[in-house]
Amino acid sequence: MFKSIRKTFLLIPATLMLGSCWELDQEVLDGITQEEVNNSNNPVLIDVLKASAYSRIVGSWGGHNSIWSIYEVTSDELAIPQKGADWEDGGLWLRAHRHTWQASDEAFNNSWAYCYTAIGEINNLIVSYRDVQALTAELRVLRALVYSWLIDSFGNVPIVTEDDLEGNPTNNSRQEVFDFIEQSILENVDLLPKTDTKTTLNYYSAHAVLAKLYLNAEVYTGTARWADAEAAADVVINSGLYSLSSNFFSNFSTRNGGSTENILTLPYDENNAGGFNLAQMTLHYSSQATYNLQEQPWNGYASLEEFYNSFDDNDVRKNSFLVGPQFAADGTRLNDISAEAEDPDGEPLTFTPEINELAPNALRQAGVRVGKFEFASGAASSLSNDYPLLRLADMYLTKAEAAFRQGKTGDALAAINMVRERAGMPAFASLTLEDIYDERGREMFAEASRRTDQIRFGTWNDPWWEKGQSEPFRALFPIPLQQINANPNLVQNPGY
Whole-prediction pTM value? Predict the structure, then answer.
């Protein structure tokens, strides 16, 4: 380990779970000379330093107890039915789906810690390399991306920068957080490369973050920013770097690094960058034989019947679900084998759209499963698919919605029909907000988008399967109780 790389900083509040020091792994530094280490403007070293920050973002985004999970299971897309003792988990996921969660639920604390750990790593790097303009500019935009998840999830969160490394911070208002995200991007975006760098931020992916921020500005601040959302999306659409993939599912395949559509991805790798556990999370125990998986799945996450039925049978995106009779890799019919079953061979395994109940005795076969991402034969517990955080289709849908809300129906139709036609669906001749909402659901399924869309379109509090009318304050998740107990300066969100 090069001693000049190791940096120690002032202690950061434990309540934010930010590391007070960091050390780059020796393997990351392989091939870098001492001279390169001492030259903070060396592009090779800059790439190494950026990797340290981005690795925190990859982390556990796509895993159990992650932001992905709380976004999906609290929406009308997915649920985790309780099958006897399986997935009881102290009622955590039942409360999540029914919108009766508690401030002490661990999933919220894990998501908070995930975000602020990444912010801590970013701040540490900025402190050490303030004079490396290209590096610090990108890190500030990366930090803004993390804050875009915090403002959406928790709203009134502390803004912690490289200049705030001591003491227990207090909440900033949602407006202040919005302004901080916007300013961080606008002040630094012109220093980012205008190249197709899928696993790191560039000029265009920064504009994609802005587009999504502006699309939800009315929710976050009370002031709509539709024109700004459209303009930011247009920067990406008109860049010439991206195009809709002719095969929708190529964006989610195991080898999707060459996707022409994915703008910013998390580069998961089952050997070196784990944390994307979707196969484990959604597949039935017996599905291990379908894909020759190295570990047995957990039989959890399933789509709601009404959401599944919202797809036309001719829509190629309906293949985002696994439904019907299930088979082993050799074509043998799979059985739902259970120690409690009267028949020791079990019943033939068939994923059914209908889920008999959320709890306590959901049927083990009930619910279509998430099949949008490829499950490679022989995959480990973590997939190697790059997870698309930002995708061109989302930018077309952002433009469509923002244009429509400004009364520009022609522009909206042109944008949304690009997405529909790729899915094999006829073009819309006319358009409503409900059409846009439904199209976003079909296109963005299982990409942690639905909760945010539901809030923006005013359907979040509505009742759906196994969920009653929820209180308006639940549009924000609670500040985790564990964090408030550790930091008396934090103030809980209203209603909790």
Answer: 0.92
